[in-house]
Amino acid sequence: MLNMWILYASIYATIIGFFTVLKKKATEKTNTLFVLAFHSTLGFLLLSWTAFFDALKISPQSILFLLIKSVIVAFMWIFELIALKKYYISSLQPISSIKVVIGFVAGIIIFSEPFVWWKCIGVAIIFVGLIMLNLYDKKHIVKFEPAKNNLQATPTLTPDEQQQLKRNRITAIILFLLSCILSEASAILDKFILTNVSPNQMQFWFMMFVSIILWICFFASCIKNKKMLVSKSDFKNFYIYLIACILIVADRFLFTSLSQPDVLVSGVSVIKQISIIVSVIFGGLWFKEPKLKNKLIFLAIILAGIIIVLI
After folding, report:
1. Which is more confidently placed, 281 or 116?
2. pTM to 2 decimals?
3. Is the residue at 291 inside a domain?
């Protein structure tokens, strides 16, 4: 019989794969911080009217932990989107598999989950797949054209263009890796928080705090640039409203999964990697990213490692 936490985590992972691609699309012509702040606020408003009174029943200590989680997630989203705007999704998303390693180690050390030796082989395969993808990607680097929000292969690049592309690639990888580490830190914190609060209460406080934090970051950016980084047309960005609804649904499945008594944190970390498949294929095709078929080979190697860790 399928454990319910596995089902909920699988649904979450599938939805969040589409969410990642749509979030990148939403920032195509709209300021990144505005997209994050506005869609978080919309999400909060969507659920607040049903969760308000229930949310008041939790302890100040739980609220503090939720504030910490919100800070972590806010910067995770910022790092992730900056990375995705600098480089292509089919190369960055496989890095998310590093979360499996973090979840595997955390599950053993923090949650005393059983150690299984063959899972180490799965972890090794994941790293091999990532290294191979990195080497291939480095060799076949292509030109990024922000105006098209697409990556186009170009026959020749000047030395300056090559250096700039390399810098953008390295910066994107570092930022995306940081976002993965913060994501897994948030997931570990979720397990502790959900022992004292319900998924409904958690969503309310989390969405409220993360909205406030992101608005502070947005207005700080406006002050730094000495201009308002949003226009009337940005409020007509359909994708912002879409990702707001998607996030609420996805998070509810995740929090419900983590609140199950028999849940394995390392197992959730593995299952969440379904989002890699969705975002790489869906995003790669939508943004017409080059060398996609070849990258799927390395993705298959990474997924083989993930499956071994899951067994």
Report:
1. 281
2. 0.86
3. no
Domain-located, residue 238: yes
Give me the domain span that covers residue 271.
4-89+157-280
The more confidently predicted of residues 237 and 309 is 237
218 assigned to some structural domain: yes
Q: What is the pLDDT of residues 240-279, one digit of tens each?
A: 999 999 999 998 898 889 888 888 776 787 788 889 889 9
| SS3 track for the chain | CCCHHHHHHHHHHHHHHHHHHHHHHHCCCCCHHHHHHHHHHHHHHHHHHHHHHHHCCCCHHHHHHHHHHHHHHHHHHHHHHHHHHHCCHHHHHHHHHHHHHHHHHHHHHCCCCCCCHHHHHHHHHHHHHHHHHHHHHHHCCCEEEHHHCEEECCCCCCHHHHHHHHHHHHHHHHHHHHHHHHHHHHHHHHHHHCCCCCHHHHHHHHHHHHHHHHHHHHHHHHHHHCCCCCCHHHHHCHHHHHHHHHHHHHHHHHHHHHCCCCCCHHHHHHHCCHHHHHHHHHHHHHCCCCCHHHHHHHHHHHHHHHHHHHC
Could you tell me how far CA 113 lies from the centroid of its own chain? 25
How many domains does the chain contain in total? 1
Residue 85 forms part of a structural domain: yes
